[in-house]
Amino acid sequence: MMASSIELDRFYSEEVEFPPRLLASHIDTAEREVRTLLAGMRSIQRPNIDPSIEYDIVQTGSSYEGLKVKGDMELDFMIVLSHPEFKFIPITSDYSGYRKIEVERQFELQANWRKTGPPHSFQKDFSSNGYLIPSKIYQWFQSLADRAVIENKSKFVKKFVGNFPARTLILNIWPDVEICVDLVPAITIDRDLFVVAKPLKTSPDLWRLSFSVFEKNILSPLPSPSCHLKALKILKYLREHDTRLEETSQFASGLCSYHLKTASLHLLEQRPYTQEGLHEHLHQLMDFLIESMQGRELNHFFMGNPSSLATKAKVPSSITKEKLRLNLFGDTFMNESTLNQARERLVRIKRSLPAVIQQHSGPGAYSCNIY
């Protein structure tokens, strides 16, 4: 027995979709509080030494892509950094998806060095061998943020949790409601292309490329009733809450939402305008993932892939025309046993989808603190 599009639509409306008005309210609150925090950080910076914190927040992630599902309220903000005295130059690395950032002096600012410190302190504090170091930037950013949180007067309780590279600002807006905001230092590489301070353990001078803005530019214009978005959100919800049904689910812990989104983008490229209903779209997405896990191949959507969607989103040709594809299911990123267990679990979910949906619905189902 298969779940019909009507049943899936009902499940989507009742269990999956995050209430739009509440989402907008939470986003407004978070953006306002983060802008206040950043203003506090700017007020305690060392002039001409510390990186400049740009005023525009780069909003990324599911809440801005139309992909937010019920559950924890999480937002992702890239905080763009620059420096008036130095130019940041991206250098291709041996690791696909990463760049080195060369620091090149443009000119020397006039400064009272007896007040601000010795010459070249930006280079001494934040670079090594001529390259900007992500961990140094992140540690400075977090120290500045910690000080600003203490000094900032807000009606909401604020605190930071976690450590490099995943540090999260927690806003307690109601007694039982939290907004979690990831603040990620970033450097602009090209229009809408950034690198973020999330290096490889083996190469601490590398910055990770972020394609979040391109993904948002592709997904957010899709109409809210789009079956592409609904199918992805339903599968995302099932993955995020699958440990309720199977505690050791590798579909939940072995895969991440980025794998699901990548698969959905590939399907959107293959079948941009189809008349199939929600049932067909969901099963196509599950089949695509199952086949990708079986073949141990899920290529990054942008790198080495000159697709029409990438062209429309204005992804730089230097990215789409790279010779090597980045396989997200390759040995570098994914353990074979984990991938096999995740695939087997998704096969079982697909086979018994009506029962799985029933278990996530009604009395006793997951209830997040959103009201």
The main pleated sheet reads as: 9 strands, mixed
SS elements, strand count: 11
| pLDDT < 50 runs, ≥5 residues | 366-371
The helicity comes to 40-55%
Taken as a percent bin, the fraction of beta residues is 15-25%
Structural class: alpha+beta
Mean pLDDT score: 89
- For this structure, the quaternary state is single chain
Topology as H/E string?
HHEHEEEHHEEHEEEEEHHHHHHHHH
Using only C-alpha atoms, the radius of gyration works out to 22 Å
Please report the distance between the alpha carbons of the first and last residues. Answer: 35 Å
Task: Please report the number of helical segments.
Answer: 15
Tell me, what's the shape?
globular
Describe this structure in words.
By secondary structure, the protein is an alpha+beta fold. Helices cover 42% and strands 20% of the residues. It contains 15 helices and 11 strands. The longest helix has 24 residues, at 20-43.
Write out key terms for the chains shown:
371 residues, alpha+beta, 9-stranded mixed sheet, two-stranded antiparallel sheet, 11 strands, 20% strand, globular, disordered C terminus, MAB21L/cGLR
Please sum up the structure shown.
The protein has 371 residues and is of the alpha+beta class. It has helices spanning 5-16, 20-43, 62-65, 113-116, 121-126, 134-151, 212-219, 227-240, 250-253, 257-270, 278-294, 308-312, 317-320, 336-351, 353-359, and strands at residues 52-60, 73-82, 86-92, 98-105, 127-128, 131-132, 157-161, 168-174, 177-190, 193-196, 206-210. It has 15 helices and 11 strands.
